Amino acid sequence: MTPSFFEIVQLSNGDYALKRVDDDAAPLVKISFSREAREMMENRDMTVARAMIDAGIEAVSHLNEGLDWEEADSEDFESHAHHTLH
Predict the structure, then answer these.
(1) Rounded distance between C-alpha atoms, residue 85 and residue 63, angstroms
(2) What's the per-residue H, E or C state across the chain?
(3) pTM score > 0.85 for this model?
(4) Which of 1, 41, 64, 69 is most buried by its number of CB atoms within 10 A?
(5) What is the superkingdom listed in this entry's lineage (predicted)?
(6) Is the separation of the CB atoms in 49 and 11 below 8 Å?
(7) pLDDT by residue (tens digit) across 8-62?
């Protein structure tokens, strides 16, 4: 199986999306911020979107490891390696 590479793109409507580099199919994830949220972030919305996507990937990784989300606390997540998405 060929490994997939992902990218975060900004869509024409200003939303952010995670998609496969070699695939024109619908994005895997879309993030949309309200005008108020964008103003509060002061032009750092891409950084926040990237952090949100990274957290989602880490969450899926924990689910795949069999972590019980109902009993997990923040220390459980800090002890695992972080994944970097570019």
Answers:
(1) 18
(2) CCCCCEEEEECCCCCEEEEECCCCCCCCEEECCCHHHHHHHCCCHHHHHHHHHHHHHHHHHHHHCCCCCCCCCHHHHHCCCCCCCC
(3) no
(4) 41
(5) Bacteria
(6) no
(7) 999 999 999 999 998 888 999 999 999 999 999 998 999 999 999 999 888 888 7
Nearest to 76 by CA among 51, 84, 61: 61
> Is the Cβ–Cβ distance between 40 and 75 less than 8 Å?
no
CA dist., res. 60 & res. 35, Å (int): 29
Q: Are 80 and 59 in contact (CB under 8 A)?
A: no
- Which tokens go with 27? 């994005």
